[in-house]
Design goal:
The chain is an alpha+beta fold. It has 13 helices and 19 strands. Strand 11 and strand 12 (about 205) form a beta hairpin. The protein starts with a strand and ends with a helix. The structure holds guanosine-5'-diphosphate and manganese (II) ion (MN). It is an enzyme of class 6 (ligase).
Length: about 375
């Protein structure tokens, strides 16, 4: 598995190693964006910080010239759902006035069992597409990891790609640094797309990707810390989960899942998948779930824009079915209209009392887990249509 740094983190790592990057600041609310833009100076690019490519095309990047535009763009991007990821923060960055967009990257060529440096003048677009449609547009140079990258190899890749003479030296030097980072930091991919070229022949990393081999994180304490930071600031929901003391993981689907005990939640997840649905999250409310914890769990899945239906799977041990049922009723009674359909399955301690207590005007009650999951998947599907 790989750990993906956010753009702002990868840029920090690149900048520390001497690669030119635009001035920028991170922000997580509209006023913060305006303050950051004042500091950086207009025009600025406002960029969603989610670990996924193609943000530009998906509406996650906006260039703005003044405060009004900045507010509007920040309001639009913050909190948006970008390819299944909730946008909790944006990078506010000095807009670069470029004449060319290049691609430079280092990755592992599994076929050759060696790292490969890649350079292309077709930067700024999805490089996988370039690789497919016009493979010759990407110059490649394999590197022997025991010797590292030689300067002549960097120059050759840059020359083969057809990079303008005036910037060839600087691009080679960026490529060398990128390889050193990849090597020192246990990278699986290190990539700059686009590496922008300005009218006065400066090169500047306008985007940054750094993926790290997860098994090596123990010897990369600085990067491990970045991962922890991203988890605590990147996502409102994860922050909420921290406050509530839940184990919570966001997934890409739209069927919300709440259960007690990691195994039980995993099983529910697998069943959602089995019945043709897509899990929106993993949420374990833990043992002895009292009414207020149940209400908090519902608050979490209801505030997740991706969730279209919710399945509750509770197996009572110390957690009593009647307590859970009361919690569900209390939480749902607060709404004039239930925001998303909720399906409940109770088993174990006091499950019968629980079933009786549940208000069927507010929730759908099912006897078996299979039925409950199928029902929730069905509801999620209906909302989608
Ligand atoms: P990605 O879509 O997630 O790869 O995000 P990028 O950071 O690569 O940005 C995508 C595209 O947005 C770039 O190729 C540029 O065309 C544009 N863009 C991003 N930042 C700037 C900037 O500072 N100035 C200008 N003019 N365009 C930018
Ligand atoms: Mn990019």
């Amino acid at each position: 598995m790989v750990m993906k740094l956010h753009e702002y983190q990868a840029k920090q790592v690149f900048a520390d190693a001497g690669i030119p990057t635009p001035a920028s600041q991170l922000a997580s609310d509209v006023d913060g964006v305006v303050a950051a833009a004042d500091e950086v100076g207009y025009p600025v690019a406002i960029k969603a910080q989610v670990q996924v490519g193609g943000r530009g095309k998906a509406g996650g990047i906006k260039l703005v010239d003044d405060e009004d535009e900045a507010r509007e763009a920040a309001d639009e991007i913050l909190g948006m759902d970008l390819k299944g990821y909730h946008v909790g923060s944006v990078l506010v960055e000095e807009a670069v006035d470029f004449v060319n967009e290049l691609y430079v990257g280092i990755t592992m060529d599994r076929g050759e069992g060696k790292p490969v440096a890649m350079v292309s003048t077709k930067g700024g677009v999805n490089i996988e597409e370039v690789a497919e449609e016009d493979p010759d547009a990407i110059a490649r140079e394999h590197i022997d990891p025991s010797f590292g990258m030689h300067p002549y190899q960097a120059r050759k890749a840059v020359y083969d790609a057809g990079v303008d003479q005036a910037v060839a030296r600087d691009v080679s030097s960026v490529l060398m640094t990128l390889y050193e980072l990849w090597d020192d930091r246990d990278g699986s991919d290190a990539e700059i797309n686009p590496l922008m070229v300005t009218a006065d022949d400066e090169v500047i990393a306008a985007d940054a990707v750094m993926n790290i081999d997860e098994d090596a994180l123990f010897r990369q304490p600085e990067l491990a810390e970045m991962e922890a930071e991203a988890a605590s600031t990147g996502d409102d929901l994860e922050q909420k989960a921290d406050e509530y003391g839940f184990d919570y993981v966001r997934l890409e689907g739209n069927t919300g899942i709440i259960g007690n005990g990691a195994g039980l939640v995993m099983t529910t997840l697998d069943l959602v998948d089995y019945y043709g649905g897509e899990p929106a999250n993993f949420l374990d409310v833990g043992g002895g779930a009292k009414a207020d914890r149940i209400a908090n769990a519902l608050d979490m899945v209801f505030s997740d824009d991706n969730v279209d239906s919710v399945v509750f799977n509770i197996f009572g041990g110390i957690t009593r079915g009647d307590e859970v049922a009361k919690g569900i009723n209390e939480a749902l009674e607060q709404f004039d209209e239930i925001p998303k359909p909720v399906v409940v399955r109770l088993a174990g301690t006091n499950w019968e009392e629980g079933m009786e207590i549940l208000n069927e005007d507010l929730v759908t009650v099912e006897q078996t887990l299979e039925d409950a999951v199928q029902r929730a998947v069905e509801y999620a599907g209906e909302v989608n249509e």
